[in-house]
């Protein structure tokens, strides 16, 4: 059967070449589309490393300096820091709260962060500086790469000697050392000649589902008094300290943020600070992803992909309709010689699928070369899966495109087909 179909294709080489070129171009473009959607699907399903259920974010605001109730503190006063600590203590005492964490430009699902660099041998690596309190790991459920609890990771952070010891994320450890078993390994801060030592490695973390790679992160303890004393944070600057807390598992999350703010608004009004907003972190995640430029780009690409698929379907239908119509006299002769209607349909569909198989060979070679050149990063398993998916989708399109004109041609009377001079 295949040999017979090959002979048919060869006998109509002119028309077949045009179809082969069309299918080749369509195969390569469709392969790239499938690669994009498969890569995006796998990316969004990879764990981010942050557990957001029962997590809430507290936003602080400060009274205007011209407000009658504004308290003017002396320069260098520690009272603003104490006020932040009092707010944290009152949140911790709430019966629904399990743990409170503090951070400075270190939350997920945000575009605000602090960049830094670390050195290891000849590698100069940019990292995200995660300045956090020990409770941060418990709030977001971050474990060590070896599976140790967030509590243990927090204890390690508490005993960390800043400037001499570091906690790395798993991806950074793998980038620098090739593996995550690096406790005790030396690493340098940028422009520092005295080495630091790695004392813990966290599990992989990402800022959001759209980040193509896990974060290269270095965790260090948040020292409010030290930062305030050095002039890095004044009273207004302390409002940038991020307060998050995790409620107990049995606490209902239904409208909890609004209830908590209403209940605690007075007790959390300390000094010049007051709580302007309490938001559940799953809502923050949803808002960030909904308004991300990558979401808009993904929707645009998805719409273009759907438009392309529809046009491919229509183009292939048109091509094979014309191809079948030109052969009505041949098909009529075959029926006159005893071919069945089902046989005619099968012949045309088989020829179309064989043309696709032939066009797929150079198409796969083109895609394989691009994958080998790392233009489209793709392992063997992913390449095979995408190629099979592309071939399957295109085979379905070709089948549907040929089926109707082939069925219509097979239903004609042999005498009518023989009179057709197309």
Provide the succession of SSEs. Answer: HHEHEEEHHEHEEEHEHEHHHHHH
Helical content band? 40-55%
In which order are the strands of the major sheet placed? 3-4-8-5-7-6
What is the 3D form? elongated
Alpha-beta content class: alpha+beta
Give the biggest sheet. Answer: 6 strands, mixed, barrel
Poorly predicted runs of 5 or more residues: none
Radius of gyration: 32 Å
- In DSSP terms (H or I, runs of 4 or more residues), the helix count works out at 14
What is the CA–CA distance across the termini? 26 Å
What would the average pLDDT be, to the nearest integer? 85
- How many E strands? 10
Give the tally of structural domains: 2
User: What portion of residues belong to β-strands?
Assistant: 15-25%
Describe this structure in a few short sentences.
This protein is of the alpha+beta class and 422 residues long.
Explain this structure to me?
This protein has 422 residues and is an alpha+beta fold. It has 2 domains: 2-45 and 292-419, no CATH class; 55-291, no CATH class. It has 14 helices and 10 strands. It has helices at residues 2-11, 13-45, 79-93, 135-140, 150-158, 170-177, 224-229, 256-264, 281-291, 293-325, 328-336, 341-372, 380-410, 414-419, and strands at 55-62, 97-104, 115-120, 123-132, 165-169, 186-189, 196-202, 217-221, 241-247, 273-280. Strands 3-4-8-5-7-6 form a 6-stranded mixed beta barrel. Strand 6 (186-189) and strand 7 (196-202) form a beta hairpin. The chain starts with a helix and ends with a helix.
